[in-house]
Fold this protein.
Amino acid sequence: MGGLRELAASFVAPGPCGVAVRDRLKHLTAQDEGVLRAVGAYQGALASRDLKVRCAEGLEHGARTWSARKRELTGVSSSRIAGAITKATHDQWALARRCQAAYIRTLDAGIRTLRHRLSLPLGTPGTKRAAGGYRSKSEWFRKSRRLAALEARHTAAVGDWQAGRVRVVRGGKRLLNTRHHLTEARLTEDEWRERWEAERWFLAADGESGKRFGNETIRVTDTGEVSIKLPAPLAHLANARHGRYTLTARIAFAHRGAEWADRIIANRAVAYRIHLNTERGRWYLTASWQRPAVQTIPLETARARGMIGVDTNADHFAAYRLDRHGNPVGEPHRFGYDLSGTASHRDAQIRHALTRLINWAVRVGVAAIGIEDLDFTTEKTREKHGRRKRFRQLISGMPTGKLKARLVSMAAERGLAIVAVDPAYTSMWGAQHWQKPLTTPHRKMSRHDAAGIAIGRRALGHPVRRRTAPPPHDRSDRAGHRTAQAEPGDRGREGTCPPTTDRPPGGPPPSGKRKREPSASNTVRDAPSTHQWVQDSLMCTG
């Protein structure tokens, strides 16, 4: 392919395997809130203690140590609470290990880039695939010092990885560091303390199939009544039988309420989590459960009714509809969003843009949406992009992971498939082959709109360019069809022209129809080859 990397095959993204819904706990009394705070703080302390023990075990963890920790927690709480705490501890430790491995890979990439650039003479120009040398001795010296710092960090990280040491903060490292920057965060010490304590509470319980309403620890009945199994030291706070406390609030899930009700009536497992939003002063209950694995539709079925190609950008989605032959249909569509502000604001913006995109796809009747399989994990290092700080901020701010997960789950609810394609060269080839041909006085095509067409064609299995090979030596069709717009069995616009008459070759024209006879040529170029041309000698006059 002339030095181009091999493109990965397109595939249909698997659907979601879990569901989570949330509702607010309204009309809680002061006693209800006091009980929730007491239970959350008590179980949060147990979770912190268990996480400390698990981190100290490192790679020595096994079934024996797990059983010992669970027995210790059971004596001060209950068997179900102990199981939920130890499971959450294992998940948090495993997440820290995955982050540690990703950090080591990032350091490896930065060290390789720095060593390569430091080995080149000053001023060596770079290429598209590799950066060049540094521009001055001072920059070379600063980067050599940074290489030493990265190598030291890498050595320490590898040592922690081999020893099984992880660094975990219950409540979050970012919130912990906010304590030293309260003025910038516009928080008082009391507000920060309240948020910190709320984040370290543990008010969660895993579901159990076969148990009443699918959960014994946090039980929600079909009428919306919420009750909590209190730990043994807090059993004196119970207001119901068997050491339970029943809240005055009632739950009624507006979203997926029927599906949730079907599960709890059949005593199928449902996990619950209660948390406090300190900014609003509101309590919420989140219910989650697993779905059976949904078989994704075949790729050919997803391509049957055309495709919508979507190019993901820092501030909008550029989408274009294509029919099943890869021809653009209609006008380009753009769905904007703003990724500035808080995380909740960014999430709402992405959700709103995806909702409009999916609604448009349902209206036009396509079966799938094609999107790039983006992953900027290796593209964020400052060593690779150097002084291009704005570009690094751009690709770091694009929520590729959350976007794919949210798009897949939202599209599955509307019966749409998501086809992931290789993102290589889509912007470049889309602009080269589609931007100028589709630009008209009434249609302004951007590079992103053309990239949407390239993504859609790749999702449909067509090449990005409109022709698979350059024209032959002349402009006839002796070499056969050179377009890739339609399949071999489809004639339509790409079919052969119908005959002008129905008479056989050399036969008389049909009655009632006139046929114009070919006129004689008046040019030397079209004269018969049998004619002999003779030029008279020039007459010279004196």
